[in-house]
Design goal:
398 residues, mainly alpha, 78% helix, single chain
């Protein structure tokens, strides 16, 4: 028996949180549904720290693009062979690739009769909960080939977005690194010269120069302790962020204020919803699955509220408008719902959100360069003042 933790709402719309034991996802989901709980999130209890670290290291080794390649290859092979044979072929082709271990275990699990999505859940850190849920729907509907193809397309787009964002950050990161190196040299080489000279004259250094000099000495003498304190603080903050939902909710709300992150979230939502509706899932169930697939707590809460309202017979388009979705998307959804072409309009919304993301990414490098240059300029200006002030004071002493 496995332990699962869940979050959902009962018939009175009261949040329910807890754990239960079941053989697999399906049994856990069925048990909660029998109890009248509408599931928003369902996942296995956390693995041991050692297992988590091992999976994170494996994820780093195989790279961010591997998931998209895996589902793309699997989609092609499912057109001509069974799932087990497809996985076996992929495992044989992996050879010395880090993914060999994952593929071998998937082949063994599927060969023993285990559901594919359950086999994937062993490596949820690598595949992601949303991908596993999509595979579950594909298996249940007998449409696994199309599911894996759409998953591959979605993962390719997300990977492309992440890659472009990282590429845009290279220039400002390099500029800031150069500014930091210049700061270290000036504080440890140039400013001590002025300190000795002013000490001989019985005068004090200018306040700005003195602050930089003392700060540099503290960093040089206690850098190991500072690194340890920062690392420990980072671990504590990360653990607090994961455990305290209120803090995550605040950060997730702030994320949605960033246009790029908001459009990516909308793109994924419209894509998932259109696919689920096309697969025969009812609108309320599709919205529920979209809520469970999102990692943003604000999005989860909003979609759960929409889901309950849809169950009561309210218009999906009207609910989307109330939740302040961008007007252009709302107009398309209203048109699609009124004309019986909601799936097509949702696809159009997905395409528009994707266009917005690409437009933001197109201008991001230039904006990042400006930001990096301004920050580096402020650092350099501060250093120049710190060096020039003692020189001016020396001139006055002479």
């Amino acid at each position: 028996m496995k332990k699962f933790k869940y979050r959902g709402y009962d018939s009175a719309a009261i949040e329910q949180v807890g754990t239960l034991e079941a053989e697999n996802y399906s049994e856990a989901y069925a048990a909660l549904s029998y109890q009248g709980v509408t599931v928003v999130k369902l996942e296995p209890t956390e693995a041991s720290p050692a297992q988590i670290l091992a999976n994170l290291y494996l994820k780093l080794k195989i790279g961010g693009q591997w998931r998209a390649v895996f589902f793309r290859e699997l989609s092609v092979m499912l057109g001509v062979m069974t799932l087990h044979d497809s996985l076996k072929t992929l495992a044989g082709a992996a050879k010395n690739h880090p993914s060999k271990k994952i593929l071998t275990e998937l082949v063994a699990a599927v060969g023993e009769g285990q559901a594919f999505y359950e086999a994937l859940s062993r490596y949820e850190i690598i595949f992601g909960g949303d991908a596993i849920q999509s595979v579950q729907i594909g298996e249940a509907s007998g449409n696994l080939q199309d599911v894996t193809a759409r998953l591959a397309a979605q993962l390719e787009r997300n990977y492309s977005t992440e890659k472009k964002v990282r590429g845009a950050m290279y220039y400002p990161a390099f500029v800031l690194l150069a500014a930091f190196a210049a700061t270290v040299v000036l504080i440890n080489v140039t400013l001590p010269v002025f300190e000795g000279f002013f000490a001989e004259q019985g005068n004090d250094l200018p306040p700005l120069t003195l602050i930089l000099l003392r700060g540099g000495k503290v960093l040089a003498e206690h850098w190991l302790l500072i690194v340890f304190a920062l690392t420990l603080s980072g671990i504590i903050c990360a653990a607090t962020f994961r455990k305290v939902a209120a803090i995550r909710f605040i950060f997730d709300r702030l994320k949605l204020k960033v246009k790029l992150l908001r459009e990516v979230e909308l793109r994924n939502f419209f894509g998932r919803l259109s696919f689920l509706l096309e697969s025969g899932v009812t609108l309320d169930e599709a919205i529920q699955l979209c809520a469970a697939a999102s990692k943003n707590l604000v999005v989860q809460k909003t979609l759960t509220e929409i889901k309950f309202s849809v169950e009561r017979g309210e218009s999906f388009a009207a609910l989307v408008a109330k939740r302040q979705f961008p007007p252009l998307y709302v107009g398309l959804i209203v048109t699609g719902e009124a004309g019986g072409a909601l799936v097509n309009m949702l696809r159009q919304c997905e395409s528009m959100a994707d266009f917005e993301v690409e437009e933001i990414l197109r201008t991001l490098p230039a904006k990042a360069e400006i930001f990096g240059t301004v920050i580096a300029g402020l650092i350099v200006a501060t250093l120049v003042f710190a060096v020039m002030l003692p020189i001016l004071d020396v001139s006055s002493l002479i």
